[in-house]
């Protein structure tokens, strides 16, 4: 076992780290305060090839792997999570379903723009009133001739209302299975389709420079050929997407946790109290040491899950463990970093205030911590 990075992965990590520090850090606080989407940052990430990292070159990707995406997410989140979640959702939840389950025609139409960052896609799974119970989907799609007619709504959908959002993939009830359960399928809905309405952006606690909306579908008609994957397999398809996405969210959480260490170290060396830097006091030293411990172990957890996935081995439990542990660590480290900064930690001009606000959603999005525990317990045979 060797957890050291290859030369290619090292080079990618370093380039994204430099980009985050030089291009993201100087401007993201203003976007966060104004709740504006950082289009210029997204454009630059597209030029760097970050949106195409885990996709083959024949589709316009970079020919890398999912672990490369995770490394990029970690480095971005060390500076800002809004930018990191924009990339994570664009790749894991937006482009990946098209790549995994799309027809040749669907891939040829959508992937080039999605993998270049020229366009974004949303992932329409969660609904108002259902939350973690994705099987409780109420949105319905009825086949009328050669068109699907969709009615329903989705909630908390990332990258669904930007000026460059091209489509949203939507899970909908398309019939009834022989055992009486709902038949769930996935349908591509292009932006601007009549009957598809994007509500104003949410007023959120964190991720303020990320795009999140509620979506409604009122007799929204799309071609029958917009069915993504096999009819009736929509829920199973998205379960696979979510398993992969949990590794990516774990990487993002590790980045936030490590960013808290970075900022606390910097502050502890500069801030004077009682005649010397606060980093000279054991109370602060031990806090930062524990934060580094947590970030390091969380990193190993997502490394392990990613390695298993890339090797073609079962990884559902390991992905849940990585996501559960890393999100918990992110919240813990953000709380401690805020405490180390004292009153300044409560001021939005300091990154740790942003980290504190952004950390909590990591215990909720892409499967709550309780859902992760359910997955782990079931995989253990309980």
TrEMBL record:
Protein name per Swiss-Prot or TrEMBL: Acyl-CoA dehydrogenase
Keyword terms, alphabetized: FAD, Flavoprotein, Oxidoreductase
Residue stretches making up the Acyl-CoA oxidase/dehydrogenase middle domain: 123-220
Segments forming domain Acyl-CoA dehydrogenase/oxidase N-terminal: 6-118
Family the UniProt entry places it in: Belongs to the acyl-CoA dehydrogenase family.
InterPro entries: Acyl-CoA_DH_CS, Acyl-CoA_Oxase/DH_mid-dom, Acyl-CoA_Oxase/DH_mid-dom_sf, AcylCo_DH-like_C, AcylCo_DH/oxidase_C, AcylCoA_DH/ox_N, AcylCoA_DH/ox_N_sf, AcylCoA_DH/oxidase_NM_dom_sf
Presence of the UniProt keyword Lipid biosynthesis in the record: no
Highest classification ranks of the organism: Bacteria, Bacillati, Actinomycetota, Actinomycetes, Micromonosporales
PANTHER family xrefs: ACYL-COA DEHYDROGENASE, ISOVALERYL-COA DEHYDROGENASE, MITOCHONDRIAL-RELATED
């Amino acid at each position: 076992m060797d957890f050291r990075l290859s030369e290619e992965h090292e080079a990618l990590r370093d380039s994204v780290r430099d980009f985050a520090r030089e291009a993201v850090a100087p401007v993201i606080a203003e976007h966060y305060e104004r709740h504006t989407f950082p289009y210029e940052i997204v454009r630059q990430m597209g030029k760097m090839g970050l949106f195409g990292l885990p996709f083959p070159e024949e589709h316009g990707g970079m020919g890398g792997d999912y672990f490369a995406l995770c490394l990029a997410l970690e480095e971005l989140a060390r500076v800002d999570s809004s930018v990191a979640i924009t990339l994570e959702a664009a790749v894991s939840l937006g482009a990946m379903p098209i790549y995994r389950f799309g027809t040749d025609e669907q891939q040829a139409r959508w992937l080039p723009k999605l993998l270049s960052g020229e366009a974004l896609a949303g992932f329409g799974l969660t609904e108002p009133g259902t939350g973690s119970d994705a099987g409780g989907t109420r949105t319905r799609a009825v086949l009328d001739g050669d068109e699907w007619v969709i009615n329903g709504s989705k909630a908390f959908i990332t990258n669904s209302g930007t000026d460059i959002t091209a489509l949203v993939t939507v899970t909908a009830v398309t019939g009834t299975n022989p055992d009486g359960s709902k038949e769930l399928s996935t349908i591509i809905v292009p932006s601007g389709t009549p009957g598809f309405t994007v509500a104003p952006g949410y007023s959120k606690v964190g991720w303020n420079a990320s795009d999140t909306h509620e979506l409604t579908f009122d007799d929204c008609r799309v071609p029958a050929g917009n069915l993504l994957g096999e009819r009736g397999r929509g829920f199973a398809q998205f379960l696979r997407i979510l398993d992969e996405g949990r590794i990516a969210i774990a990487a993002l959480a590790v980045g936030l946790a490590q960013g808290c260490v970075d900022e606390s170290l910097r502050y502890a060396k500069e801030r004077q109290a009682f005649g010397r830097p606060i980093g000279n006091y054991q109370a602060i030293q031990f806090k930062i040491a524990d934060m580094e411990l947590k970030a390091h172990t969380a990193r190993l957890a997502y490394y392990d899950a990613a390695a298993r996935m890339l090797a073609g081995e079962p990884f559902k439990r390991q992905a849940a463990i990585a996501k559960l542990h890393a999100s918990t660590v992110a919240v813990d480290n953000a709380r401690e970093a805020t405490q180390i900064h004292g009153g300044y930690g409560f001021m939005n001009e300091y990154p740790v205030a942003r980290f504190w606000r952004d950390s909590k959603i990591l215990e909720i999005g892409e499967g709550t911590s309780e859902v992760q525990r359910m997955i782990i317990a079931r995989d253990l045979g309980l």
